[in-house]
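Holo prediction — adenosine-5'-triphosphate.
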Amino acid sequence: MKPARQIEPTEWMRAAPTRAVIDALSADGQEIRFVGGCVRDTLLGHGHDGGGHSDIDIATPDRPQQVIALLDRAGIKNIPTGIEHGTVTAVAEGQHFEITTLRVDVKTHGRHADVAFTDDWREDAARRDFTMNALSCTPDGQIHDPWDGIADLEAGRVRFVGDAGRRIEEDHLRLLRFFRFHAWYGTGAPDSGGLAAATAAAKLLHKLSGERIRNEMLKLLAAPDPAPVIEIMAENGVLAEVVAGAASTEILRALLAIEAEIGADPLRRLAALMRPSGNAAAAAKLADRWRLSNAEHERLAALLSPPGQIGADMKPRRLRRELYVHGAEQIIDWLVLAWSEQAGESKRFRSLIDAARQWRPIALPVKGADALALGIPAGPAVGEVLKAVEDWWIEEDFTPTRPDCLEKLRALASALD
Ligand code: ATP
Ligand code: MG
């Protein structure tokens, strides 16, 4: 097949680790091509740093065992990430390459597929989800585009390869991927056929594994502006299948405006979408469904249950106390979300966040050893007395020095006798 376009190989294509992997895989004369996001992003002129925002996907007609043998022969570290689906990950200079054997899905089950390997590039392109994701590119820059993906990419049109309904039936995750890619690459309204098929299939989403939902949704939420597509998902009954109780994007939209100053964060965006009704129980439910890590679950739960005193009218003294108890990162998270809910108070929130950023952790100037030295018997009394000193020290706005605290400790110790 004639290539659709010739491009000048870009920096990531010429970089030493990429060359090493390509040379290893084509050592016996095989045709190797880049596929997926790296080709798409390169055509858009977006830098593709590979390691930073996503892996480099490579396709080969060789079977996985052969891929492993070729990488071993070249001394390139490799991991059999998904052998049964034909995927091996190569690691060169810390950079990851996902190498997948050309394949066709012979039987699909909505959640996974039985695959067969092939050496036909067109067949492999046909099983890919969207026309813009079915592009491939040789190491010297020849782009193959069997489904007019370049035209769709340039028009901002996320279009299924083949019949949208059937492709979603084969793998329900494609329904979420449709919205994810529209959020990143779409212009204007989503493709009407794709949207109708996605809407009709929304009820199938419960069959998907949590990990897959999590990955797609967090990538969707990381788009420069996910709000319009989230609204379309809500209007069409898709959002409720993956995020229960999200009623409006008002807080999310306010957060997106604020993020221009403070940086994007998909988990915080999710919390904004779940506010104001979302609480720790909602976080637990979502964490269970999406299989969030413990750290992600804890952060989401905290975001959805801020202490009442976090707000625009917070006094510096109160802020210091909360910073001491919860740490700057947590306080900034809460302040940003509170700011999204009280968007008129930007000036105050900016200065509270500045103050939180300048906060350096401090520790109570006296320790258990000081209590023991004053003759307090080892045991629960030590903790109780230290706690009393700490409460007083916080109440005094952290101004008492070590001698002041020792004196307080001494007074409390003598009261114990
Ligand atoms: P990203 O930049 O997020 O990595 P990507 O397009 O590379 O985007 P991946 O999830 O890494 O997305 O998948 C790589 C390629 O594999 C896709 O471009 C697409 O061709 C194909 N693909 C991935 N998931 C599916 C799916 N569920 N159905 C069909 N094709 C898929
Ligand atoms: Mg990828």
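READOUT: The radius of gyration is 28 Å.
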